[in-house]
Write a structure and sequence with these properties.
Layout: E1 2-8, H1 11-22, E2 27-36, E3 45-54, H2 59-64, H3 70-103, H4 107-118, H5 123-133, H6 139-154, E4 167-172, H7 179-191, E5 198-202, H8 210-221, E6 225-227, H9 231-239, E7 247-251, H10 260-269, E8 277-283, H11 288-298, E9 305-309, H12 319-322, E10 331-335, E11 344-346, H13 349-357
Parallel strand pairs: 4-7, 4-8, 5-6, 5-7, 8-9, 9-10
Antiparallel strand pairs: 1-3, 2-3, 10-11
């Protein structure tokens, strides 16, 4: 079925347009009235919006089918038409609701709305946020509501806290997400405190030069590094001298989100009884679809926090909020460069707000 939206100054005018294009067999699916133009909702011209549809010609499908299969073709075509019609109606209804929502906003709220869309925030989430914002009495109040709403969406950061040493923290994530560099940044940060003993463990023996890279960092920071190849070796290391350390960071092999075999190997190395925290690293220079797949597949490793990487390589920062739509784990830190340990910060909402709002002119 072919479905299209028509706008006219009255019903008669709109019906004329429909018949002229779709013919007399067209059917009316939905209608609504709205005002266009005007000033602050007054003096606008009333118009009619009509959703109309018409059955498309199925003669080609009939000719292509054998004589005894006409009924099957008709039934299949009818089912497809019904599903397609439902989808288009749902899309148009959502579009109408959003258009009406935006038309009701004042200029300042519309600017905030457009800004969030340009940052890549999902439209349904933008509508929820701006609905709160539009209740503000003036521009300053609206901006404060926006900041408060975004803070709540981001949630409070959960940084690493050493409670019962040795506190073991593992980093997991796909290949190229920046696990080794992030571990070096965290280790260097904690090693700045002379009262804290920091150790490194790496199980990333699959990637070429991975051990050498972490060994270079450990030499620079002047902290010990142990290489393990199994869960048993990891347990033995933690039962040895490392049991006297305050915090131990564990590097793990990278894996594609769809490599079940490699994910199984990582799961086989990590001993949950010896780990206090598992941070899943998500790179913001990836498409949201890929980020969600990484989160879904790596959930089998039971991470309890999200560490965001490569914010400096992200074209837009709306995914800081989009991820919260389906991720209930708190953010811990975010990284934005290669400098160790400088390019790492707490994922506190106050630190993330500038990425989303930038130097927005209030």
């Amino acid at each position: 079925m072919k479905v299209k939206k028509y706008v006219g100054k009255n019903m008669q005018d709109t019906i004329f347009k429909i018949k002229a294009e779709l013919g007399s067999d067209a059917i009316i699916l939905n209608t609504r009235k709205f005002k266009e133009g005007g000033f602050f909702g007054f003096f606008g011209k009333e118009k009619i919006e009509v959703l109309a549809g018409v059955e498309e010609n199925e003669q080609q499908a009939k000719k292509a089918a054998p004589a005894g299969e006409d009924d099957q073709v008709n039934q299949a075509g009818s089912n497809r038409d019904i599903e397609e019609l439902k989808r288009k109606i749902d899309e148009l209804n959502r579009s109408w609701q959003q258009d009406d929502f935006v038309r009701r906003l004042d200029d300042y709220s519309q600017k905030l709305y457009n800004h969030l869309l340009e940052e890549g925030v999902k439209k349904e989430l933008v509508c929820d946020i701006i609905e709160d914002v539009s209740s503000g009495e003036d521009n300053k109040d609206k901006l404060e509501i926006l900041q408060s709403t975004v803070r709540k969406q981001l949630g409070e950061a959960r940084e690493i806290e050493i409670e019962n040493p040795p506190h073991t923290v593992a980093m997991v994530g796909p290949t190229g997400v920046g696990k080794t560099t992030t571990i070096a940044k965290l280790a260097a940060f904690f090693a700045k405190n002379p009262k804290k003993r920091v150790g490194l463990v790496t199980a990333d023996t699959y990637r070429v030069a991975a051990v050498e890279q972490l060994k270079t960092y450990s030499d620079i920071i002047n902290i010990p590094l142990e290489v393990v190849y199994s869960k048993e070796e990891f347990a033995s290391t933690m039962a040895g001298d490392f049991r006297n350390f305050d915090i131990v960071f564990v590097d793990t092999p990278g894996s594609s989100w769809d490599d079940k075999l490699q994910l199984g190997r990582i799961e086989g190395i990590l001993d949950g009884e010896l780990l206090d925290e598992i941070h899943l690293l998500l790179s913001l220079n990836q498409k949201l679809e890929n980020i969600s797949k990484v989160y879904e597949r790596f959930s089998r490793l039971n991470p309890d926090r999200i560490l965001l990487t490569k914010l400096d390589e992200a074209a837009h920062h709306g995914d800081l909020l989009n991820i919260r739509l389906w991720c209930d784990l708190p953010y811990s830190y975010y990284s934005y460069g290669q400098d160790v340990p400088e390019d790492l910060n707490s994922a506190d909402p106050e630190n993330l707000l500038p990425y989303l709002l930038g130097d927005y002119n209030v």
